Amino acid sequence: MHGHNINHSEILIDLVAMSNKHGSNPELVLAGGGNTSAKDDKTLYVKASGTSLASITKDGFVAMDRQKLNEVLKKDYPSNDKEREALFLEDVMGAKHNIDDPKRPSVEALLHNLFSQRFVLHLHPALVNGLTCGKDGESMTKRLFSDQAVWVEECRPGYTLAKLCSDKMNDYMDRTGKPVSVMLLQNHGVFFAHDTVEQVDELLNDVVSKLKEEVVREPKMSQTVVDEQSVTSISEILSANGKYVVKHSASTEAFAFSADRESASPMINPFTPDHIVYCKSHPVFIDNIENIPSTIETFYKEYGYKPKIAIVKGMGFFAFGEGEKEAETAKALFEDALKVAVYSESFGGPRHMAHDMVHFIENWEAESYRQAQNK
């Protein structure tokens, strides 16, 4: 990183511009997804959890003490998930410059601090996640990017992930003599890091164009003709007498995946933490419209929560939420999961999150916090 300390208002102007530009591109960012940061030697400015990159202003970032964040990584935490993450969160919150600032730094603040470069962009685009959620993701990353990108296998987010990434980044530095600038996280997303926002853009464009060349088929997301009457009557049943807002997805892809249980199988388990946060871990598959209430009741007994997505045989899928925003977000994220499933076909076929990871995210306080910001 060139120059030790810099003009903080200039760095924030660049950071806001980078965040707004990529945040308003639905190919790259959905809902509260993704995060960005900028730093000098002493201070890290990182996106506050639950804020949207598309509309973020300089007030949407949290100023953090980099020295304190470095110390967090050296600590020994309990192995118990709940205890470890609670203490980790306390320490990360304690690294804020202004402890009284109610804003909460992104759950990935520690990861942003690990990069030596000034600007960091972290995204979960469907195209990139076709690779990170593909069975051949790691081998194809090596083939496509050789030493330009580092692959990080699936692991628990929060402290555990930061520790693993730190080790990988140190190994890379020892081996190549340069800092990591592209890091791909299995079943999660990608980090780009460079000293200028223009160079971050170049890294992003390079990765996207290489992946596009590999893609065997693009997802077909244009809307198809539907039987409006059936859609209305299914939506009415799913709304539980108007208790939920229901949104129908009628893309060509949604119809193909809903043809029968076998076709829907790539969609029954989650690909990334984002999909769990906004769509729950599993959708309900409905064979028969007559049985919607009883099928949902059975689902509830099995999983302990009401589904947010119903795949209805031959009818695409329906997303529901307690309000308009929640329903729209669930629909957008499940459409994103459809795209990931299609893109993964080019990278060895779909690989879903491991069961223990799914369980961890379902019970992780940090993601509950993020979900609450979406209401």
Task: Please give a structural write-up.
The chain is an alpha+beta fold. The chain has two domains: 8-214, Class II aldolase/adducin N-terminal domain (L-fuculose-1-phosphate Aldolase, 3-Layer(aba) Sandwich), CATH 3.40.225.10; 228-372, Class II aldolase/adducin N-terminal domain (L-fuculose-1-phosphate Aldolase, 3-Layer(aba) Sandwich). The protein is 46% helix and 13% strand. It contains 16 helices and eleven strands. It has helices at residues 8-23, 66-74, 81-94, 109-114, 126-132, 137-145, 159-176, 197-214, 228-238, 252-257, 261-264, 273-279, 292-303, 324-344, 355-362, 365-372, and strands spanning 35-39, 43-47, 61-65, 119-123, 150-152, 182-185, 189-194, 245-249, 284-286, 309-312, 317-321. The strands form two sheets. It has a seven-stranded mixed β-sheet, with helices on both faces. A four-stranded mixed β-sheet has the order 8-11-10-9. Strand 5 (150-152), helix 7 and strand 6 form a beta-alpha-beta unit. Helix 5 (126-132) packs across helix 14 and helix 12 (273-279) runs antiparallel to helix 14. The mean pLDDT is 93.
